[in-house]
Specification:
Blueprint lengths: L1 E4 L12 E4 L7 H17 L3 E7 L2 H5 L11 H10 L4 E6 L2 H4 L3 H12 L4 E5 L12 H10 L3 E5 L3 E2 L2 E2 L2 H9 L3 H8 L4 E5 L6 H5 L6 E2 L9 E8 L5 E9 L10 E6 L10 E12 L6 H20 L6
Parallel strand pairs: 1-4, 2-3, 2-5, 3-4, 5-6
Antiparallel strand pairs: 7-8, 9-14, 10-13, 11-12, 11-14, 12-13
Helix pairs in contact: 5-6, 7-8
Length: 313
Amino acid sequence: MERLDGGSAVPERLRGGIVALGNFDGFHEGHQAVVGRAVSRARAEGRPALVATFDPHPVHYFRPDLPPFRLTSLDQRQRLFAEAGADAMLVFRFDAELAGVTAPDFVTDHLASRIGAAGVVTGEDFTFGKGRGGNVDVLKLLGQANRISVDAVAPVVEDGEAVSSSRIRDALRAGDCPLAARLLTRPFAIEGVVEHGDKRGRELGFPTANLAMGDYLRPRFGVYAVRGRQPDGRMVDGVANLGTRPMFDPPKELLEPWFFDFDGDLYGQTIEVALIAFLRDETTFDGLDALKAQIMRDAEAAKAALAATPPQP
């Protein structure tokens, strides 16, 4: 699937498409409903299906002091959009220029002129344009003037409450992996390039693949049962510490998975680690022998949790 710059003209072969429009961070069940509607319309009408997203997240642009809160990287979203049937992903670079575009100009200049959209699908709570001056009603009026049809999809409700990225973030901060996975329709996963560390895990007999947290939300710090997707797509089970490693100096935020049945070199390669179950909080121990004994207990607990949570097909 192609990744396109939302600030440039869309190639002719993708013009006249149906565009799913939103932030789509997390691509949870509600986001999937929006993209699913766009793909269904596109297929029924013989048109391309495009998904438009924003990077960085508009909230991060307006409040750069906020702690990291992202649920997916652009690469992860691109794979998820492709799996949902989209033909292309449009990435709007959210900067001062885009923040200053009014709602009418966004529809006329971006959706109609640069993208050549025939239709737009978004959520009922979508807002856009300078000062959030546009909502779905405004989008419909502006769309009509520009010959762009507009569909608004209602929120998906789970347990009596709308599915939202905020609910997922709250669940992850609480260590509630099953709830986050239910709302996302898949486990929350962190993707990154394996870094060289200080080799502490290898010295202890538990070689880890260290990932920096970057812009991802910080889930509850502690030990997790995890599943890792290797560069070749193979899935491996493991146990991971997510946090600041209180036994070692200097403190550094890392996700450190130890994969049970893997003995290879992952340095410099991109892997994805899914958090399946929270096992315990981070803590300190009376020496390395006590830490090693706890890691073995954590590994057994992780194996039990993973056995109770089969991989998704």
